[in-house]
Amino acid sequence: MIRSLLCLSLTLFLLGEAAQASPKKELLECIKRYNRNLIEAAADPSFTENFDNRRRLEECATKKVAQKLYIWIASWHENRLYMEAKLEKLELIRLNRSQDSAIAETKEIWIYRYKKIDSEGRVSAAHPPSKMEYLVRYTLKKFPKGWKIAQIKILHEKETPLPSDTS
To answer: How far apart are CA 45 and CA 78, in angstroms?
Structure first.
């Protein structure tokens, strides 16, 4: 009898843990997708040629957040500046979640390179490569098709210059 109760308790505990892991994983995947879309869009010289490309950013961000990001990318591209970035680390350090909203804080490490492409297609460095460490707060909202980022706030950042030949 005691053995059966222990087995039942363990099973319920494991089921509860699995149910908690799924939303956490879903939220983290949304943040990763957002950052992947940011990296691809900022590096692609043709991204802002078609305003509808902003919809790619709306896959995992609200219209307001996606439009803000699109305008940021467009302003860089208008000046023929492009960001090559690599997300080295994305660690979820805090998560507060309700049924239809969540606040996730992450520790992120990025490597950035900024390049300029002139009208003849020549590429030059626009800014020395750097490593950025961030503490970021994402506010997410639940929509019928999944989670979307509704707000992003950088809580802390630290920049470390890198040698020009670092990959």
So the answer is: 10
pLDDT at position 22 is: 81
pLDDT band of residue 53 (cuts 50, 70, 90) is confident
Distances (CA, A) of 38 to 17, 35, 41, 118, 135: 32, 5, 5, 22, 17
Which of 113, 114, 110 has its CA nearest to residue 87?
A: 110
Q: pLDDT value at position 156?
A: 98
pTM of the model: 0.83
Q: Which two tokens stand for residue 55?
A: 């919809």
What residue has token string 């890198």? 162
- Per DSSP bridges, beta strands 146-161 and 123-143 are antiparallel
